[in-house]
Amino acid sequence: MPGLFIDVKVAAEAAKDTEIAKKLVEVCAVDIFAQNDDGSLRVVEENLDECVLCDLCIDAAPKGTVEVIKLYES
Amino acid sequence: MSIFITKDTTFIIQGITGREAVNLTRENLDYGAKIIGGVTPGRRGRDVYGVPVYDSVKQIAEAHGTPDGSIVSVPPRFTRDAVFEALENGIKLIVVVTENIPRGQVAQMVELANLRGARIIGPNCLGIISPDEAKMGGMGGPAANTRQAYTKGPVGVMSRSGGMTTEIASTLTAAGLGQSTCVSIGGDAIVGTTYAELMPYFEADSETKAIAIYSEPGGRMEAELAEWVKAHNSRLPIVAFMAGRFMDEMKGMRFGHAGTIVEGKEDTTSEKIERMEAAGISVAERIEEIPDLLRKRMTEAS
Amino acid sequence: MRFYEYESKALFRRHGMPLGEGQIVNSTAEARAAAEAIGGPIVVKSQVLSGGRMKAGAVQFADTPDEAAAKYDFVLPIEVGGETARSVLVEAKSPVAHEYFVSVTWDGRRKLPVLLFSDMGGIDIEEVAETHPEHLSRTHFSTILPLSERIAKEAISSVGVSGGDLNRLVPIVYRLMQVFLQYDLTLAEINPVAKLEDGSFIVLDGHVDMEAEARGDHKKLLAELGIGEDETRQARPPTEFELEGARLNAVDHRGVAGNVVEFDGNLGLIIGAGGGSLTLFDAVRKHGGKPANYCEIGGNPSVGKACNLTKLILGKPGVEKIAVMMNVVSNTRVDIVARGVIKGCLEAGKDPSKVITIFRIPGAWEDEGFKILEKYGVEYCDRSVSMYEAAGRAVAKL
Fold first, then answer.
1. Arch. (CATH architecture) of A6-73
2. Distance from C-alpha of A43 to C-alpha of C46, rounded to nearest angstrom
3. Has B257 been annotated as catalytic?
4. Number of structural domains, chain C?
5. B139: helix, coil or strand?
6. Chain C residues with CB inside 8 Å of B108's CB?
7. What is the pTM of this model?
8. Which of B23, C188, C251, C348 is most buried, by the most CB atoms less than 10 A from its CB?
9. Which CATH class is domain B10-301?
10. What is the pLDDT of residues B16-74, one digit of tens each?
11. What ipTM score was computed for the predicted complex, to two decimals?
12. What's the CATH code of the domain at C29?
C-alpha cells in the first residue's frame, strides 16, 4: 500500500548501487529503505507514512537522486 | 535574574547518545546552553552535535572541570546509578528526565542528594527554563518553538506536567506576561523538588513578581505549598490551575502521571483547592484565566 | 497494584512472618474440607480488593465444617464496593488477647518511607490518629542506610509497648519493612497483628500494594503468587476496550498512544499528554460533553500507533465523533499525529472532515500538520484557541 502522505522516489541509477542502498538503509530511522537479495534498493511502502522529514536520506545519496514528496502539498 | 540556571551554567548530559538525549542536546545547544560533555559508557571519543562523549562523569570533570549540572536521560534501571555518579562527582543540580522509576529508587537519589547538598529536579520532568537565559531539559522542544512559547518576564511557573508548563507559558506570553523561570517538577509520587521547596528560590529572586502553578490530584504537595505560604507570609501572589477534577469521583483509578492516583480524601482536587484558597492562593478554572488573575494579584500586591 | 489478602499473606509467609492455619477455597466442598482439616472455630473471608469487607458481611465465623460450608455460600455473592469474591479464605479463628496495627508507606513530603505503629489495632487507623494520637507512632527511615531492627524497636516502644511483647513484635515489624523495600511496595500493612491468649503473635489480616512501575522487576514473585500480567488491579478490572488499547500501544516502542480508560459517552477523545489529558477531559465535561474514553498521547508516537488508537476509538459502540486535542506540544509532532489520526479515520471507513470535530494541537511542526489537515478538510486551530474553547467547539458539534 503506497503512502497517503509521503512518497519517496529514488533515481534508478542510485537504487542499483549497493553502497548507496546500504547507506540509505542505515540512515533512515523509520525503515523506509531495504535491500533486495541482489543488494539493490527497495522502498518499503508500508513505512512511507512514518517519514519524519529528517532529510538524512537526501543528504546520504548523491545530490538529486533521492526525492521526498509530501503528497498533501499537491 | 532567574533561579538555578543562567547563561553561564555549564552542564552535561548522561546518556547523551540515546534517542531522546540526542534531541535534547540539539535543542539545548540551539537555545544557547553550555553543554561541556556527555556520558555513554563505551562511547568515549565520539561527539553529539560537537559535544564530546566520555565513559564517565569523572572523565568529564578531569577534562573540563566539574560542571554545574547534569541532565540524566538513561533507561529507568540505570537512572539511580547515573544520579549517584553525578552526585559523587560533585554535581549540585541534576535534572532527571527518565520516567517509570520506582519511588524507592527516587527516595534513594533524593536522600543522597540531601547528604551531598545537591538538588534534584524530577524524575519524569522536562527540566528548567529561564527564558532568554538558558534551558536545561526538554521544555518547549526545538529552540524555535521554545522561543515562541517562552518569553522573559515576572512570572515564575511550577508544574507537575511538562506539557502544561509550555501551555501555561504560551498563554502568559500571548497575554504579554513573560516568565522568570519555569520548572517542570515531574509527575511522580516522589519528586526531588516540590512546589514548597522551590518557593524560597523564587522568593529570593527579585525578578519574580508572581507564581503560576499547574496542579493535579494525588499527593500532599499542594497542602505543603499552602502551609509554606502561610508560614512564610510570602510576598509572591500565586495563581494555581487544577486539572483532573473528574478524578474526585474515581477513587483508586490511575489517570495521567504516576503521582495522580486518589487514595484518600486529601488527594482530591476539591480538598486541594480548599486548602490553597485558604492560604490565599487563587485557583483558576481555566488556563486562559491565569494571566488576568496574575495581573490582578500583582496589582494588589504592589 | 493491590494484592488480595491471601496473596499478601503468602508473601508474608515466605518472609517468615507468623500466620494462622488457612486455605484458599473455590467451592463449597473445598470450604468444608478446609474447615475439617483445620478443626475448631473458623473464619470465612471473601477475597476482594475493596475495603469494608466486615461491614458488608463478607467475613463470617463458623464452628463446624457444615457451618463453614454454608458461610462460604453466604459470602460468595456479597458485593463489596461493587466487587464479588475472587476466592474465599478459610482460616482458623484464633483466641485474641490484644490487637496491634503496623503499616509501611511512602511520605511524599519527607520523601522517605514511614513506619506507622499503633497498639490500638483492628480499628480504623485514621480514627486512632484523631482521637488517640499518643497511641500512633510515625517513624521515618532511610533508604540508603542498612535497614535495622532499631527502627522497629523505636516505633513500637514509643507508644509504650515493652517487655516480651516488644521483643516479639520487633521481628514481625522489621520483616514488614524489609518486604516493603525489597518488592517496591507502596503499602505494606498488617491490621491487626494479634497477640493470642497463649502469648504468641500472628498476622490476622494483611494488605499489600506494589508499584506498577516495578512489576517488571518482580515478575518471578508475581508469577509464583499467580498474579496475571494483564491484571491491572485498579479500582475496577480493565475492560476489553482498555486491554486492546494497551496491546496496540505495545506494538512499537515509539511514544505513547494509549492509557485508554473506557467511559460510556458519544465523543471519542484523542488527547494528550499526561496533564493535558486531565485538563481536556475536565473541559469536555464542563461543556456538557460525554466522553467515550480517556487516553494519552505523548512522547511522539509513530503514525501507526496514532492510527491504531483512532481506529480503536472510532470502532467503540456509541462513538459518534472524535476530538483531537493536546496542550502546546514540545517533542510530540503535530504533523505526525495529524497523519496518524487521518489515516485511522480513513481506514475505519470514515470521512476525517466529518468525524473529527476539532484538531487542537499547537506546537512542534504545526505548519506541516495544518497543511495535512487542510488537505483533508479537518477543522483545526492553533494556540490562540484555548484548550477549554477547543473542547467547547467539539462538544457543540454533537
1. 2-Layer Sandwich (3.30)
2. 60
3. yes
4. 3
5. coil
6. 143-144
7. 0.93
8. C188
9. alpha beta
10. 998 889 989 999 999 999 999 999 999 999 999 999 999 999 999 999 999 999 999 99
11. 0.96
12. 3.30.1490.20
